[in-house]
């Protein structure tokens, strides 16, 4: 029987960590762009657009992410399109992220006082100019902390991609644990690596939150 | 391809229907058991977290940071594969034995490694979040409440029990209910260790007659329905922030 050293285990987990990071980045950037587009559509569009996007948000927030991943993986295949686990995971996580981010950002825009909208439209600014010079600069300040905080949820969410067979940190952990029969060490390391990825982000979010909402001097 | 056709009988009839019934029961059982564990853990953590001594606070802060910053799936896998292996051998043998008394109605075994690991994993994870929600609710109580209670001769714990916690619970009840609902949704992850709940059964149907879309649609609707009923019950049972003490005076009759 082959002996696996601690370094063998850790090295392979670190290699798999790249895929967790890549999937998180793709989901976060893709979800951010889609979320921004949805936010724009929601602010600029009429009632029907608003309702439709509200439904989209409800759908993704009200059902388990695992179900969404399965649906992306097995559902798309039914239409005769061959999807890899990577594509399905990236797609599902991007949509999931976009639903949450668009809702978070909508709240931030709503937190800008109504007088700002009225004052800027009385200055004859167009919708785009209003957004660009008046609303977004104020909303962004509020949005940064919860957005960074949500990144932790995205990173943790990528672990579910292991269930549809995408080899990222968790899947690699399961596989290595099955070959080495050292579940305690392997899953301990896996948890530690996720912690190393998420904890600094959590701390940053908390710091930003204090900076934005904390007492001023 | 000849267009998409749906066959609901393939999911809602015969063996798949029986599987789904078992799945719903298992989800309900594991959610309820997880609910109890989460509540217990939240109480313990909250007790540690709001103590006046730093030494007691630190372990709670560490536990909260660790469990909030790792994925629940990894935690469940850890408890199932590693945590269970750490138990003494005769305990493991005892758990793996047949227990007719530990069979819940519907034929769901309570004393199985899968059920225990899922319950414990879900309970710890949610308990950590619930403790933090209630602590946030506690911090939102006006400082005058505490000062007034202390001035009237309440001690630390009695002030908490009679004055601060009732208000904190009312403040935090909405997000706490959200966490309990999240626990129900996250029980889907227990499928990864082979607990035969809804998600597990849905996948089984998918591999049995490849009715993927129908099975996932039914599964999603089941979660949605359980969540709505559970949310209503919890919101009805909980304290309502509107009727609670506001500014120190109870409003209305």
From TrEMBL, chain A:
Chain ranges passing through the membrane: 20-41, 53-79, 85-105, 142-166, 186-208
High-level lineage: Bacteria, Pseudomonadati, Pseudomonadota, Alphaproteobacteria, Rhodospirillales
Keywords recorded for this protein, A-Z: Cell membrane, Membrane, Transmembrane, Transmembrane helix, Transport
Family: Belongs to the binding-protein-dependent transport system permease family. HisMQ subfamily.
Protein name per the record: Amino acid ABC transporter permease
CDD domains per record: TM_PBP2
Subcellular location: Cell inner membrane; Cell membrane
Record-level GO cellular component terms: ATP-binding cassette (ABC) transporter complex
SUPFAM superfamilies: MetI-like (SSF161098)
UniProt entry tagged with the keyword Transport: yes
Superkingdom field: Bacteria
Domain ABC transmembrane type-1 as annotated: residue spans: 17-205
Membrane topology: Multi-pass membrane protein
One Gene Ontology molecular-function label: transmembrane transporter activity
From TrEMBL, chain B:
UniProt superkingdom: Bacteria
Record-linked PANTHER family: ABC TRANSPORTER PERMEASE (PTHR30614:SF47), MEMBRANE COMPONENT OF AMINO ACID ABC TRANSPORTER (PTHR30614)
Membership in a protein family: Belongs to the binding-protein-dependent transport system permease family. HisMQ subfamily.
Membrane topology qualifier: Multi-pass membrane protein
Name by which UniProt lists this protein: ABC transmembrane type-1 domain-containing protein
GO biological process, one term: amino acid transport
Subcellular location as annotated: Cell inner membrane; Cell membrane
Any one GO CC term of the record: ATP-binding cassette (ABC) transporter complex
One Pfam family from the record: BPD_transp_1
Residues annotated as transmembrane: 28-48, 102-130, 215-235
CDD domains the UniProt entry points to: TM_PBP2
Record-annotated ABC transmembrane type-1 domain positions: 24-234
Keyword Coiled coil: no
Keywords: Cell membrane, Membrane, Transmembrane, Transmembrane helix, Transport
InterPro entries xref list: AA_ABC_transptr_permease_3TM, ArtM/GltK/GlnP/TcyL/YhdX-like, MetI-like, MetI-like_sf
Principal subcellular localisation of the protein: membrane
GO molecular function: transmembrane transporter activity
């Amino acid at each position: 029987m082959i002996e696996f050293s601690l370094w063998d285990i850790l090295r392979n987990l670190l290699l798999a960590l790249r895929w967790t990071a890549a999937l998180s980045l793709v989901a976060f950037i893709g979800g951010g762009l889609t979320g921004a587009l949805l936010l724009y559509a929601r602010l600029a569009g009429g009632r029907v657009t608003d309702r439709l996007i509200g439904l989209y948000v409800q759908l993704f927030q009200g059902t388990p992410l695992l179900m969404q991943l399965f649906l992306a993986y097995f559902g798309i295949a039914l239409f005769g399109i061959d999807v890899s686990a990577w594509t399905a995971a990236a797609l599902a996580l991007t949509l999931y992220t976009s639903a949450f981010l668009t809702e978070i950002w909508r709240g931030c825009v709503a937190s800008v006082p109504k007088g700002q909208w009225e004052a800027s439209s009385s200055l004859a600014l167009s919708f785009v100019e209003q957004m660009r010079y008046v609303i977004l600069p104020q909303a962004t300040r509020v949005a940064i902390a919860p957005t960074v905080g949500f990144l932790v949820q995205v990173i943790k969410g990528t672990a579910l991609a292991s269930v549809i067979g995408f080899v990222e940190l968790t899947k690699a952990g399961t596989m290595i644990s099955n070959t080495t029969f050292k579940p305690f060490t392997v899953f301990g390391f896996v948890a530690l690596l996720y912690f190393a990825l998420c904890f600094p982000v959590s701390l940053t979010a908390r710091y930003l939150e204090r900076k934005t909402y904390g007492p001023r001097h | 391809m000849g267009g998409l056709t749906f066959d609901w009988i393939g999911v809602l009839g015969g063996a798949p229907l029986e599987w789904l019934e078992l799945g719903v029961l298992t989800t309900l059982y594991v959610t309820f058991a997880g609910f109890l564990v989460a509540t217990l853990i939240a109480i313990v953590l909250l007790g540690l977290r709001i103590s006046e001594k730093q030494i007691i606070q630190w372990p709670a802060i560490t536990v909260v940071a660790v469990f909030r910053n790792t994925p629940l799936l990894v935690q469940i896998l850890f408890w199932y594969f590693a945590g269970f292996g750490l138990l003494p051998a005769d305990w493991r043998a005892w758990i793996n034995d047949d227990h007719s008394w530990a069979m819940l109605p519907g034929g769901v075994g309570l004393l199985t490694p899968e059920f225990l690991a899922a319950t414990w994993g879900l309970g710890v994870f949610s308990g950590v979040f619930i403790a933090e929600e209630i602590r946030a609710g506690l911090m939102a109580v006006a400082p005058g409440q505490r000062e007034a209670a202390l001035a009237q001769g309440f001690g630390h714990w009695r002030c908490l029990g009679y004055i601060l916690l009732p208000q904190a619970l009312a403040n935090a009840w909405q997000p706490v209910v959200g966490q309990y609902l999240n626990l129900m949704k996250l029980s889907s992850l227990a499928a990864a260790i082979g607990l035969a709940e809804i998600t597990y059964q849905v996948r089984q149907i998918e591999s049995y007659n490849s009715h993927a879309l129908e099975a996932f649609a039914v599964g999603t609707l089941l979660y949605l329905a359980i969540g709505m009923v559970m949310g209503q019950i919890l919101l009805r049972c909980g304290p309502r922030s509107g009727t609670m003490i506001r500014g120190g005076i109870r409003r209305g009759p």
